Amino acid sequence: MQAIPQKETSIKYTTVLPKSCIDELKNLASKKVVPSVSQGIRMAIENFVAIQKQQDYENGIKEAASDNAFIQRTMDTQADFASIDDEGAGEW
User: Fold this and answer.
1) Distance between CA atoms of 13 and 41, rounded to whole angstroms?
2) Alpha helices of the chain — where are they, by DSSP H?
3) Is this prediction's pTM over 0.70?
4) I want to staple 28 with a disulfide (CB 3.0 to 4.6 A). Which of 10, 33, 74, 79 is the partner?
């Protein structure tokens, strides 16, 4: 999981959470699993957002894979650059 960059602005935002979730976060904080309830909430949200972004990316890839026009453009581009990839072989 990626941490929020240090220079990113934080915003206080009020939300309603089930008491059981807060109790569990307090328990985790007391065991030093998370630094605090607030940090536990932040970590959970960051994780949720990362998972959703990954799923969105995967859905886009699946959609592209079933798009024949996209596949054809990709294959055409690959063919156009095939000779360029071969140029200079062994010169490094």
Assistant:
1) 12
2) 19-30, 37-65, 68-86
3) no
4) 33
